[in-house]
Write a structure and sequence with these properties.
By secondary structure, the chain is an alpha+beta fold. The protein has five helices and four strands; from the N terminus they run H-E-E-E-E-H-H-H-H. It has a four-stranded antiparallel β-sheet. The longest helix has 13 residues, at about 75-85.
């Protein structure tokens, strides 16, 4: 695959206050596209999209969180990813997606791991990401 997720880690974001919770890519012979969602564990989410050919890697030009779209809520991030996936011919082809319903179900499946990521953040910090300052 052309997508190199290590570049997200090399940007210094993952493991330093941000966790990647969604990573989607589509690949053709030389063309690729990538969608990534990061969270800070405090209920804030950022969406990044990138595309290119075999001569570059995904997100290699991303230097920091300002290169992502956000911060946004979880619902806003889901909607943003829905729009990105719906309009990405490589992802739709690779995952055999067609109508809006199949795309929406696919996006929901990708975010199912969010509960796991939130639990991990809560375990590490004692705060649930949706609460911001902790449980009510």
């Amino acid at each position: 695959m052309c997508k190199d997720t290590e570049t997200i880690y090399n940007s210094g974001l993952v493991g330093k206050g941000y966790t990647e919770i969604v990573s989607i890519d589509g690949v053709d012979e030389v063309d690729w596209s990538a969608i990534s969602v990061l969270t800070d564990g405090k209920g804030n989410y950022w969406v990044g999209t990138d595309c290119g050919c075999s001569c570059n890697s995904a997100f290699e030009l991303y230097n920091g969180i300002d290169d992502f779209t956000g911060p946004m809520t979880l619902d806003q991030a889901k909607e943003s990813v829905f729009e990105e996936v719906k309009n990405d011919r490589l992802v739709c082809r690779d995952y055999k997606l067609g109508d809006d319903q199949s795309v929406r179900e696919f996006v929901e499946q990708q975010f199912n791991n969010t509960d796991t990521a939130d639990s991990q953040v809560e375990e590490e910090t004692g705060k649930h990401p949706q609460d911001g300052d902790g449980h009510q």
